[in-house]
Amino acid sequence: MLNQLADLEARLAQAQTRREKIDALNELAWELRNSDKARMRLLSNQAYELATTGEFAAQPYPLGAAASLRALALWNIRDGEFNLAASKCKQALAILETTPQPVLRTDALTILARAYWGLGDYAVALDCALDALKLTRENGAQDREAYALDVIGNIHAEMRQFEIAINAHQDALQIYRRMEDKYGESLVLNNLADTYLISGNLDDALNTGLESLRVAQANGVSQIEMASLGTIGEIYLARQDYDHAATYLQQALALSQQRGSKHLGLTHRMNLGVIARIQNDITLAMQYFDQALAIAGEIGERSTQAQCYEHIAKAYEQQGDYQKAYESYKQFHVTKESVFNGNYLPILPKIC
Fold first, then answer.
1. Residue 237: pLDDT above 80?
2. In terms of Cα–Cα distance, which of 153, 26, 163 is closest to 101?
3. Which residue from 35, 41, 31 is spatially nearest to 6, judged by alpha carbons?
4. Which of 50, 120, 130, 342 sees the fewest Cβ atoms within 10 Å?
5. What's the pTM?
6. Interatomic CA distance for residues 235 and 202, integer angstroms
7. Residue 77 predicted with pLDDT over 70
8. Nearest to 233 by CA among 268, 191, 273
């Protein structure tokens, strides 16, 4: 990894032409996607500007623009900005219609599947992910195949098709382990734990979540460490072990604040608010819910907004303030109806 980064940095420094610089920026940005999200975004923005201005103002450099849009869409996904991610993926795919590039097309399709998953449109998400999987198998890109399989597992889990979901995750896990890809291994283990959680298999969920955390920590994969801590916290919450749940969620929240991940921090705050409400600490619960609502409004996460209003209503009920509870329930229903054309599909936090 370090040698690869050094080679890419050297290539960028030695780039002579505008096209060479765009390609070098995009390659380095993509290599940094799992280790330095902020720099990935900075480099991708630079590449996109170079690919669409100056000598490329009238006719953009297609591969340069598509590659930078792919990385920027992934950045949007990780911040929970699913509509923006979908828009960028569609732009990239439109470019790639006339400039075939199987790897870029596969990545754009898989990220688009993640975006539609986040938006709750599972049928379209699955179509995109299956198209990506077909492309990876035609072109022998094993890392992309594993990623597409993991996404397919996530989508089937949300559709409550747990056997298919678990099989897809396990197929992805086998590929990453053969490749000795510790980031991929810890990623899939976390998503598999989440699938077990959704299915109600809390014992396998906890064991798998703890394994994901162990692999992430042993290999310095801080992004998945953050996600695994949150997943384990949710599993303990489902087990009604509120002390352990709060411990893991607080660690996850601290890491999300360090990394500037609003999307995951939003979910951790909401879940910590749920624990505080259950433990009858309504003041603390309201603090967490208010913070979560503010972040949800900022990034447009309407499904989490609806859930927060519902939890706030329950908190007011516990206090015996039925007027405020009624007002919060009204906000809950209004927000719920605005999500996915009235089809309320709560989103669980999965990393990608």
1. yes
2. 26
3. 31
4. 342
5. 0.85
6. 7
7. yes
8. 268
